[in-house]
Amino acid sequence: MIRHSVRSLVCRHGAHTVLDGIDLAFAGGEVCAIVGPNGSGKTTLLRHLAGLDAPAAGEVMLDDRPIGSHDAASRARRIAWLPQGAAAYWPLFGRDLVALGRLPHGADLSRPLAAADADAVRRALERVDGAALAGRTIDALSQGERARLMLARALATEAEIVLADEPVASLDPAYSLDAMAVLRDEARRGACVVVSLHDLGLAARFADRVVVLASGRVAADGPAASALSVEVIDAAYGVGFRNLLIDGIIQPVAWSRQP
């Protein structure tokens, strides 16, 4: 069973403490949504889980070993990282952008892809409805179309752990639903999926578990019905929420600005 965790994690940006003594464990087979107001540490937590930043204190553990003890090549194969607003700075074709996700598996992009790599790229493009984008250069695409290709790039890695920071921020409602369904499918195949979201409704609908961050700490951790209770999210966001119930799933709606 995949196990990814942080123990007594302290993260600082300069003199500012962003996360203060966080203990969380993540397992394969679940989608965990990380929610919280701006500045609550969602991106910081994901970057530490990806091994991109070193904590000020505490540990990030992968399979009960410090993440730094795993070699970089192994981490790249096991962890797919989708940063918020991911960008590419040269006019790659869509298929070539997605093929970058095969680099951890030894793909050589200077020559035709091996069959396994080509199949992984094709499947990833199909899963984000991106086949029509494969032959277009990314500088000619909308921000939402590029976001779909970036998600496909992460999927093409076929990693055990998927860390996605605001993957639906640029997407319209239809593709937002599709993207979350794809991430849920990744969990169903056994992947550990951790995704930060601003849309609490999507978190409630698609996540098996919701972690609410506020003021550098974990304000709640559990099923959406409890983690997104109005008492929790009112205090976390400084907003009065109303929770609607649609098809048995709570849908938090920001209703009034607290003084």
Describe the structure.
About 30% of the residues lie in helices and about 30% in strands. It is of the alpha/beta class and about 260 residues long. The strands form 3 sheets. It has a 6-stranded mixed sheet, sandwiched between helices. α6 links the parallel β7 and β8. It starts with a strand and ends with a strand.
CATH-defined superfamily:
P-loop containing nucleotide triphosphate hydrolases
| CATH architectural group | 3-Layer(aba) Sandwich
* Average pLDDT reading: 94
Instruction: Give the proportion of residues in helices.
Output: 25-40%
**Whole-number count of domains:** 1
Q: What topology, given as strand order, has the largest sheet?
A: 6-7-8-3-9-10
Oligomer: single chain
The biggest sheet amounts to:
6 strands, mixed
How many DSSP E strands? Answer: 12
Report the total helices.
9
Helix/strand-derived category reads: alpha/beta
Characterize this entry briefly.
The protein has 259 residues and is α/β, with parallel strands linked by helices. Helix content is 32%, strand content 31%. The protein starts with a strand and ends with a strand.
SSE order and pairing:
Elements (H helix, E strand, L loop, with lengths): L2 E11 L2 E12 L3 E5 L6 H8 L7 E6 L2 E2 L5 H7 E4 L11 H6 L15 H13 L15 H14 L4 E5 L7 H16 L3 E5 L3 H7 L2 E6 L2 E6 L1 H4 L2 H8 L1 E8 L2 E9 L2
Parallel strand pairs: 3-8, 3-9, 6-7, 7-8
Antiparallel strand pairs: 1-2, 1-4, 4-5, 9-10, 11-12
Helix pairs in contact: 4-5
